[in-house]
Amino acid sequence: QDANIAGWTKQVFDLRPYASKTIRVRFRFDSVDDQFNDFAGWYIDDVVFSGLSDLPQPPTADFSATPTLGAAPLQVTFADQSVDSPTAWAWDFDGDGVTDSTSQNPVHTFAQPGTYTVRLTATNELGSSDEVKTDFVFAAPGAHDWTDDMESGLAGWTASGLWHQVTSPADCGVPAHGGLTQWYYGLDGNCTYATGDKTTGTLTSPELLLSATPSVLHFFHQFETETFDGAFDQCIVEVDDGGGWTELESWTSADANIESWEEELISLADYAGKTVRIRFRFDSVDGLFNAFRGWNVDDVTVTNVLAP
Q: What is the pTM of this model?
C-alpha cells in the first residue's frame, strides 16, 4: 500500500532501545503470493551502524596446556584461551591433520615418546582461525641413567681451556678409570697446567632433562694441584638450569690431593623436573706454582634422566 521509492533514499532507524545488547539486523522480503511479481524488487546499499562497541568477530584461536613435558605415557590437560566467543573446537594433537577432539578443554594422553605439534581450530558463526604450537609437547622415554664412559668421542660435551680427551697410554701416567679414554685438564707435553699465566677452562655436558624423581650426579676423578692454605687451583663442579651456574662441590689448594680415582656422588634433587647442564671448571686463580698434573675426570653418570 506504500508508494514505490523510485530513487535511492536514506533510511535511519534508532537502535538505542537495544543499547548494551548484542544484536543482528536483517532485511526480509516476502512477496506473500506468486501474483503480480514482475517488478524490479528491492535494492539495498551502504549499510552503516554507528556507535557500536565489541562488534562480533571470528574467533582468534589460542590455548595452553599442562604439563607439556614428562615421561610417556603423558596425560596433558588443554585449556582453550580463544577470544571472540568460539562455539566449536577441533584439536589435532599429533600434526597429522585429523581431528582428535572437539571438546573445548580436552585431556589427551600421548602414549608414545616423541615431540608433538598441536593445532586448535576455533569456530563461531562468523568464521574460524587456527593456532599451531610447534614441538609443543614432549613425551620422553622412561627415566634412565645418562652415562658417558668417554669412549665414544665428545658425546655432546663442550670444552675450553686445557680440557681435552686423552687415551691410554698417552695419559701422563694416569690410566683411564674405565676403558681407555678420559678428560684431562693439563698439557700433554709436560703433564702440568703451567702455561706461564693464570689458566681456567670448563668441561660442559649436553642438556639433560631430569625426571621428577630426584637425580644424582656420579663421576670418578683425581687431581694433583698446588697445596697451600688458600683457595688456589680450584676444581669446581657446577650446575645450570637456565638461571646461571651454581656450585655443587669444589676442591681447592687447601684440600689434600686426590691421587687415585675417587667416586663422587652429588644430589641433584633441587633440580627435579628441570633441564640442566653439568660442568667441571678448573681455575688456577694465578700463574704461580702450576707445575702439577691437573684434573682427570672419567665415567660420568646422571640418574633419572628423561632426555637425551
A: 0.64
C-alpha distances in Å from residue 210, one per residue of 93, 135, 216, 249, 306: 24, 19, 10, 19, 6
131-183 residue pLDDT tens: 999 999 999 888 899 999 999 999 999 999 999 999 988 679 999 999 999 99
Retrieve residue 61's grid coordinates: 584461536
Q: Which residue type is seen at 231?
A: A
Q: Angle CA(184)–CA(186)–CA(189) in degrees, nearest 5?
A: 115
pLDDT tens column, 221-241: 999 999 998 899 999 999 999
Cα 4 to Cα 8, 10, 28, 46, 73: the distances in Å are 11, 14, 17, 20, 72
